[in-house]
Amino acid sequence: MAGWLVKSEPNTYSFEDLQRDGRTVWDGVRNNAAALHLKAMKAGDEVLFYHSQEGLAVVGIARVSREAFPDATDPSGRFVAVELEPVRPLARPVTLAEMKANPALSEMAMLRQSRLSVSPVRPEEWRAILGMAG
DNA sequence: GCCAACGTTGGC
DNA sequence: GCCAACGTTGGC
């Protein structure tokens, strides 16, 4: 069971929006590295939901409810989407500053390449973040 | 608002 | 195929 992290600007689509909607199509990714991660997601994989621009924190956990399929918003047909459903919010958001300060997360993909909108999370990183969430 | 990082585009 | 120019993301 792999772990992932997705970024979203809460002004555009927040974790609360996902909870309200029950599920959402995660489309619009137009970056090859991010798209490779989307393609690697399996149904049931869990996904940390990070708020960029505003909040700057991991705020909840989602789950892949449908594996990669063609992104209907992409005319070229090169990119894929997945479907996500909410699992639960974190008891306490884990901020970017806290993550940067934790040596256990120094290798984390999202910290090493800040613009990557979909990235893998290693099991030990997942445990560290959930530990920080209390 | 600025700027660093990085991806993409297009001329050659 | 190289690389300069340009656009976008996202933290500060």
- What kind of assembly state do the chains in view correspond to? single chain
CATH topology: ph1033 like fold
Find the structural class using helix and strand composition.
alpha+beta
What is the level-2 CATH architecture name? Roll
Largest sheet composition: 6 strands, mixed
H/E element sequence: EHEHEEEHHEH
How many separate helices?
A: 5
Shape designation: globular
Distance between the termini: 22 Å
Give the domain tally.
Answer: 1
Total DSSP E strands = 6
Mean pLDDT: 95
Lateral strand order in the biggest sheet? 2-5-4-3-1-6
Q: Quickly name the level 1 CATH class.
A: Alpha Beta
Give the low-pLDDT segments.
none
Q: What does the radius of gyration come to?
A: 14 Å
Task: Provide structural commentary.
Pfam families: EVE (PF01878). InterPro entries: 5hmC_binding (IPR052181), EVE_domain (IPR002740), PUA-like_sf (IPR015947), THYN1-like_EVE (IPR047197). Residues 4-132 form the EVE domain. The protein starts with a strand and ends with a helix. A hairpin with a 5-residue loop joins strand 3 (46-51) and strand 4 (57-70). It contains 5 helices and 6 strands. The longest helix has 11 residues, at 123-133. Strands 2-5-4-3-1-6 form a 6-stranded mixed β-sheet. The radius of gyration is 14 Å and the shape is globular. The protein is of the alpha+beta class and 134 residues long. The protein has one domain (3-133): Roll (ph1033 like fold). It is 28% helix and 37% strand. It binds a DNA duplex (12 and 12 nucleotides) through residues 7, 9, 30-33, 52-53, 56, 96, 113-115, 117.
